Fold this protein.
Amino acid sequence: MLKKIALLATALVALDATMAAAAPKVMKYTHYQPGREDQPKHAAALAFEKCVEGATSGSIDVQIFPAGQLGNATTALEGLRLGTVELAVVHDGGISSVYSPFDVFALPYIFPNHEVAYKVLDGDFGKEFADAMLKETSIRLLAYADNGIRHFTNSKHPIKTPDDLKGLKIRVQPAPVFISLVESLGASPSAIDWGELPAALAQGTVDGQENGVTNIMAASLYQSQKYATLDGHVYSLHAYLISDVFYQGLTDVEKKAVDTCVVEARDIHRNMTRATDLAAEKTLTDVGMEVYVPSADEIAAFRDLAQPVVRKHLEAAVGADWVEKLVKAVEAAGGSQ
């Protein structure tokens, strides 16, 4: 009888081991755009899910939670650090609350175009930056994607010069660097979380805001904003972030799948957002906004006011080293002021 019990116990242990080996590793993947395929973050997420699950023969189960279903950016980033959220695609302002050097990308008017930005982000600077973030936060930055080139909108009047911003209340991301940027141009900044922005604009809590066209369209901000100025003051980013606790628990095959598939997701995300950026004037005009496209000289007037102030802020907040490295990387990639 005892022998039978021992054999049964051995069999159950073996069965448990087999079941555990067969159970997929769940990857909770959250982002902050609507769960529609016309949204860059979600289209990229769906591609990533298909790619990873195929490449790992289902050993990773990717579960997508769009529209901030797992909480705001701060909650998601804390989850990444603890390993309770496996992957999140988070905007720059949110990331800087956990890793302040991310604010360096908000240096205004630093990237002249998409091509220069991609060279910098996908090159040595981007890798060095990601390695430093991993060391400090235990969050692994897998890829940089576009959050759209940021422009000013408002409900009061056209903005053609920095003087036109004076007296306006402008919503910014809850990040000091964006407060510094808006103040440098003479407007009054108000830090409001993304989820509360449409209501704040509709109720007149603020007069305007600054965002990429993708986000303006996704949240229908044009419904309460009459005027847009395509000044392109910040090349805003999303980052693909994975919990290093989770990543280190993957097999080599699974790690390779994640690393490969995130590039596919990144490129879908970038291409969709870039296309919207390049069509900004028509897109916003078609929904009833009055759009102003500043000349190079007019952009220079904004840059000459904003960049020195924000650079000084960044040098104090995140260190002159990161600022100088970014400026040099942009110059090496073919950008110039």
The two ends are 85 Å apart (CA to CA). The domain at 2-332 is CATH 3.40.190.170 (D-Maltodextrin-Binding Protein; domain 2). The chain has one domain: 2-332. Confidence is low (pLDDT under 50) at residues 11-20.
